[in-house]
Specification:
The protein has a single domain (2-139), classed as 5'-nuclease (Rossmann fold), CATH 3.40.50.1010. Helix content is 57%, strand content 13%. It contains seven helices and five strands; from the N terminus they run βααβααβααββα. It is globular, with a radius of gyration of 15 Å.
Length: 141
């Protein structure tokens, strides 16, 4: 299963958000051990760097981005992705860009804590706990 991780799920791990870090960390582990193929949107990397640099300083932000780039594939954001995102029925352009980047890399799902933002998605949008449960069910014989 190829899954694009929304920025909010990545931030749950990097910022150790108490109510979300456990499930999000398990999803990172599934990517790390090859159970799922994880991608992040190119804009996620820039957003993460900005937030991490403000929160922890530039050296730690660089280290976090290096770690993300080692773990995840990167879904490109180019002119075609940006243009297609303008024509999808999303209320938030950033989410539309993420959706179109996911489509461009052939993602079968988007994992996000804001499923309502992906109500018009052509790609399955799952909450982190839903993806975790789906992978657990798929593992059973």
């Amino acid at each position: 299963m190829k899954v694009l991780f929304d920025t909010n799920v990545v931030l749950d791990v990097l910022l150790q958000r108490a109510s979300h870090v456990e499930v999000a960390s398990k999803l990172f582990a599934l990517v790390d051990n090859g159970r799922i193929k994880g991608s992040i949107c190119a804009t996620t990397a820039t957003t993460i760097f900005y937030i991490a640099a403000k929160s922890f300083g530039r050296p730690r932000a660089r280290a976090q981005i290096h770690a993300l780039l080692d773990l995840f594939d990167v879904a490109e954001v180019n002119g075609d992705v940006l243009d297609r995102a303008l024509d999808v029925d999303f209320s938030d352009y950033e989410d539309a860009v993420l959706h179109e980047a996911a489509r461009a890399v052939g993602a079968t799902a988007i994992v996000t804590r804001d499923r309502d933002d992906f109500a018009h998605s052509e790609i399955l949008a799952l909450a982190p706990h839903e993806l975790l449960a789906l992978v657990a069910v798929a593992k059973q014989p």
